[in-house]
Amino acid sequence: MTSDRTDSARHYWYGDGSERSRSIAVLEALRGFRAAESAQRRRSQISLGLGENDILAMRYLLRANEEGRSVGPKELAHYLGITSASITVLLDRLEKADRIRREPSPFDRRALIIVPAVPTDEIAIATLGEVREELIQVIEALSPDDAELVIRFLAEMREALDQIDNHAYANEEHR
User: Fold this and answer.
1) Cα(30)–Cα(34) distance, rounded to whole angstroms?
2) Residues 6+ apart with CB under 8 A from 29
3) Measured by CB atoms within 10 angstroms of the end CB, which terminus of the chain is less buried, N or C?
4) What tens digit of pLDDT does each residue of 98-155 get?
5) What is the DSSP letter of 71?
6) Are 169 and 114 in the same domain?
7) Is the domain of 123 the same as that of 144?
8) pLDDT tens, residue by residue, 42-81
9) What is the CA radius of gyration of the chain?
10) Which CB contacts under 8 angstroms, 24+ apart, belong to 59-65?
11) pLDDT at 170
12) Helix axes 73-80, 84-96, angle to 10 degrees
């Protein structure tokens, strides 16, 4: 799918005369992708009976699990931008649905960690949706170098997004 929106004046959030046309085009493409992905996520939420924060939490837990990291309720609440009361409700709901387990932390006997309770491949399907052939075809058309570039770019964009307003949230939490 392509867009005919190449005129930088159409990129209302940057204003006229921007000399960042390549950056704007990339951000516009990302915005379009995110809109399509959000719509797909809503369809998955309906079919799986999960809320948006449930899916975001499971994605975060899946990524942490793949990286060998333990996640506690406070870290997950911080990531989702929700209160401790809200994270308790979310975790209760996920635990009741057998999607997570709360286990004692191996590092601090007073703390809990959150562990995915279903096999990783089931979590991936539940949170990311089935791998669709249409998506695989797009990816397989990439050269190995292009695929690596896309992977690196998206990982760096995810990290950058995770850091936006992170300091403001941390300051609010300590007040």
Assistant:
1) 6
2) 3
3) C
4) 889 999 988 888 899 999 886 656 555 655 555 678 888 999 999 999 999 999 999 9
5) B
6) no
7) no
8) 887 777 777 889 988 988 998 898 888 999 999 999 999 9
9) 19
10) 59/127, 59/128, 61/100, 61/114, 61/115, 61/116, 61/123, 62/116, 62/120, 62/123, 62/124, 62/127, 65/115, 65/116, 65/120, 65/123
11) 56
12) 110
The residues, any chain, with a CB within 8 Å of residue 83's CB and separated by 6 or more, are 77
Question: Are 119 and 35 members of one domain?
Answer: yes
Q: Residue 85 CB: number of other CB atoms within 10 A? A: 9
Question: Does 122 share its domain with 165?
Answer: no
DSSP classification of residue 49: T
- What's the predicted TM-score (pTM) here? 0.56
Tokens coding 106: 């191996």
Distances (CA, A) of 57 to 23, 101, 122, 142: 30, 13, 15, 30
Q: Which residues contact 86 (CB under 8 A, 6 or more apart)?
A: 53, 77
Q: Which domain holds residue 116?
A: 21-129
The count of domains in the chain is: 2
Is residue 80 within 8 Å of residue 57, measured between CB atoms?
Answer: yes
